[in-house]
Specification:
The complex is a heterodimer of chains A (178) and B (198).
Chain A (H helix, E strand, L loop, with lengths): L9 H12 L2 E6 L6 H9 L4 E4 L3 H13 L3 E7 H6 L4 H7 L3 E6 L12 H13 L3 E5 L5 H13 L4 E6 L1 H4 L8
Parallel strand pairs in A: 1-2, 1-3, 3-4, 4-6, 5-6
Helix pairs in contact in A: 1-2, 1-7
Chain B lengths: L11 H11 L4 E4 L3 H8 L6 E3 L7 H11 L5 E6 H6 L3 H8 L4 E7 L2 E2 L5 E2 L8 H8 L4 E4 L5 H10 L4 E6 L14 H11 L6
Parallel strand pairs in B: 1-2, 1-3, 3-4, 4-8, 7-8
Antiparallel strand pairs in B: 5-6
Classes of the chains: A alpha/beta (178), B alpha/beta (198).
């Protein structure tokens, strides 16, 4: 079944442009609507390997392996996935790998599904507990600058960085289908 | 035949030593624990990447490395327990099937590092069937050091992802501890590939 592809929001285009301009060669992901443009673009780009994961911690190890082999790789996930990664984040500290992840938030804005609440509310703290620097973008016009700043801190400065993309960017999820 | 019950089993140190001697140019990633001791005991190399934690991550790390270095052979050597914790990564690998990635699971059917508790692979799980089911068609098992030649040939050929389950004896050879300094192991590995510090 094909979903019609409408023009993506400008902030989503800006996210992929930062990754592409920064020389990212592998994009690992567990899908989310907020990452759909970056995922679609990675699949379409012959210079970028798109890697769909069964669980997010695979991505932490995968992007570290990419760096070991001389490539920049990033991890795209939803806030629930951060919880799946916690022990694997040890790798980043123990070996001092640069790390960059983009996290679309759930459980914080007009959330219809209360099951997203516990991990969504703990996402930033969980990242910080594991030594990852957290930036947040909540407005479309700041996404490009904040993603770019986090990206440079990771790959130019060697930091471990997560940029949280606020749920308000994605907007209210439509649950009823006509 | 009962699942994974083989009376004949290979000696892990001999097997790993022979395998690595046959693939001097391969990039090697180890799972934590005994597999890393086996690889270190076979001779330390700058292009060995030893994990001391990140359980379940060896195969995913190997995938990222294999995609980044398509012209080099990448071998992941791990144990059944470590592979089981990251079992979904075999599906992730199967979705990419890099031609230069070989996974070698040293399977003693037990968690050797924590007191030899039985693992799933001696309680009914068939890792070769799992790998094939995920989509790694070239998945097979061996219980003899002579199986090294087949695995080494695949590693050197770089013609497709391979998954080898090696039945080994459930013993504990003397500890041979690789370096634990994570940045050192990483930087040494990258330098061997000619990569510069950022």
């Amino acid at each position: 079944m094909n979903h019609p592809v409408s023009k993506p929001p400008a902030w989503q285009e800006a996210v992929f442009n930062v990754l592409k301009a920064g020389g990212v060669k592998q994009i690992a992901y567990v899908p989310d609507a907020g990452h759909s443009h970056a995922i679609r673009s990675a699949i379409a780009d012959p210079e970028i390997e798109d890697v769909v994961l069964t669980t997010e911690e695979e991505g932490v190890a995968l992007v570290s392996g990419a760096w070991l082999g001389g490539q920049r790789a990033v991890l795209l996930m939803q806030s629930s996935g951060v919880g799946n990664c916690v022990n694997m984040f040890s790798l980043l500290q123990a070996a001092d790998f640069p790390f960059f992840t983009l996290v679309t938030m759930r459980g914080e804005y007009a959330e219809f599904n209360g099951w997203q609440g516990p991990m969504g509310k703990a996402t930033q703290a969980a990242l910080e507990l594991m030594g990852i620097h957290v930036l947040r973008a909540a407005h479309p016009d700041e996404v490009e600058e904040i993603v770019s700043a986090g990206f440079d801190a990771a790959f130019e400065g060697g930091d471990k960085v997560a940029v949280l993309l606020g749920q308000s960017l994605i907007g209210r999820k439509k649950w009823e289908r006509n | 035949m009962g699942t994974n019950v083989s009376s004949k089993r290979a000696d892990r140190r001999e097997f790993v030593s022979r395998l690595l001697a046959a693939v001097p140019d391969a990039l090697v990633v180890t799972g934590l624990g005994s597999a890393s001791y086996d690889v270190f005991a076979a001779g330390d190399r700058d292009t060995n990447y030893y994990l001391w934690g990140a359980m379940g991550g060896s195969t995913s790390l190997g995938l990222g490395l294999a995609l980044a270095q398509p012209d080099k052979a990448v071998v992941v050597i791990t144990g059944d327990g470590e592979q089981l914790m990251g079992i979904g990564s075999l599906a992730t690998i199967a979705a990419k099937l890099p031609r230069n990635l070989t996974i070698v699971v040293l399977d003693n059917g037990h968690f050797g590092e924590t007191g030899m508790q039985r693992s799933h692979s001696s309680l009914g799980s068939d890792l070769v069937a799992v790998a094939k089911g995920f989509g790694i068609a070239d998945a097979f098992s061996t219980d003899s050091p002579d199986g090294c030649a087949d695995i080494a040939r695949r590693i050197k050929a770089r013609q497709g992802t391979a998954f080898a389950q090696v039945f080994i004896e459930a013993n504990e050879p003397p500890r041979a501890l690789p370096p634990r300094d994570g940045p050192f192991i990483k930087n040494r590995f990258r330098a061997a590939l000619g990569l510069k510090p950022f």
